[in-house]
Amino acid sequence: MRAPDRLLRELRERPSTSDRATDIYIAVLAVLVFVVPLARWATLQLAPAMARDVGPVHVAIVTAALGVAAVGAGRTRGPVAPTAPYVDWVVSGPDDLARVLRPFWWRSLGGVTAVAVVAGLVVVASRDTWPDPLAAVVLAVVVLAFGLLLAVAWLAGQSRLRLSALALALLSAAAGWPLHDAWAGLGTQPRWWVMVVPVVAVVAMLSARRMVVALLPSRLRTQALRWSQVESFAITADLASAADVLRGRTRRGRGWRPTFGAPALVRRDLIGLLRSPGRAAAGIALAGLSGLLLSPAQDAPTPIIAIAAVALSYAAACYLSDGLRFSAANRSRPPVFGLTPARTALQHLVVPTVLLVVVISAAAAVGGVAASGCGLALLAVACRAASAFKGLLPIEYLTPIVTPVGEMSSLRVLFWVADAFLVCVLVGATILFQTDLWTGAGLLLLAAVLVGFWARSRWAR
């Protein structure tokens, strides 16, 4: 054992037998309390949708989105995630980098493949008939291979190898067709050509060593320090500060001066979106995807598509409203351009509102539900404003609440952190799923107005 490893092991408290038993108990309890009910709920939601005709294009869109998300996540927090002291003492040493970082990579690889297998089991369990045993094995192998592809794409995003990341994102999209055919073969007989996915996954795994070696110790240390700050802010329910830590620095366009005819802060918000094209593109893409889901959400037998559409609209509002969030966080500072805080907030609402209404309505018009798209966009912006205007966590929310089932103050903090998101999802998804087009559009508009009054009351406090 190397000296730095030995020193870190001596500094770390060794778990006792009771500690290990407690960890096993917590893991089993978490599976029984969270994983099993969630899997059961997902099975009940997916079961009525099994009869719908889902083509390979739809599956390819989902797998492509997962591949791009994996690559993007690697730039913030990759699968190889040692702590900062380990990076300073061990990774930066003379030892082989691939051997030092191999345990972290294998641990993350096992986690990703486990999630993929659980998702595959949930989908298979949602069928109303028993699958062919051999076809089920083929599907399991393909799903496992797709999990390997996602893990390698995650590693490629962390290593900043652009060609590898692009190739893996394209391979993730191409895996949609074999996944669709492997699923379609469950009721008849296996389609053996889909086994090309495991072959591709094995080839991709062979490049993992080169990606691990490409990881710079300085970048690993930066990620470790950044993530420790995120965890510190998240523990105190300060998600806005945690998000600020995750955001990359904007270096382009420092000398840009908005001169077109519009209110001053509207011009600044537009320039801010242009200076952060990645965030702007992500917000517009999420808004477009939300609008495309509105038509199937109103015809679906379960509300899961409506929940996804509303959640995506709220996420898009978060990406496109950085000016509003910054204004709410700094309202105690001297006013900019001589505007009052209220007028400042109103001008910061213009850009996200217009963008969301235009993008979501245009995407929803493909399915003939543009009115619902407009109402959903306004509801998402109103809920985002309510979240931005609520300020800091009240100190009384940290008061312990002792119940027969344990201490519940953390649950109250969780509800306070996610109150606007929960309102948006519960109200929006219920309206979309339970009403027709014009009734739903009117109710969404009414809900947006009521949430707007709620946001105004928070601003007034």
Automatic annotation (TrEMBL):
Residue stretches spanning the membrane: 21-42, 54-73, 104-124, 136-156, 163-180, 192-216, 280-298, 304-324, 345-364, 370-393, 413-431, 437-455
Keywords linked to the UniProt accession: Membrane, Transmembrane, Transmembrane helix
Domain of life: Bacteria
Keyword ATP-binding among UniProt keywords: no
Protein name: Uncharacterized protein
Organism: Aeromicrobium camelliae
The organism's taxonomic lineage, starting at the top: Bacteria, Bacillati, Actinomycetota, Actinomycetes, Propionibacteriales
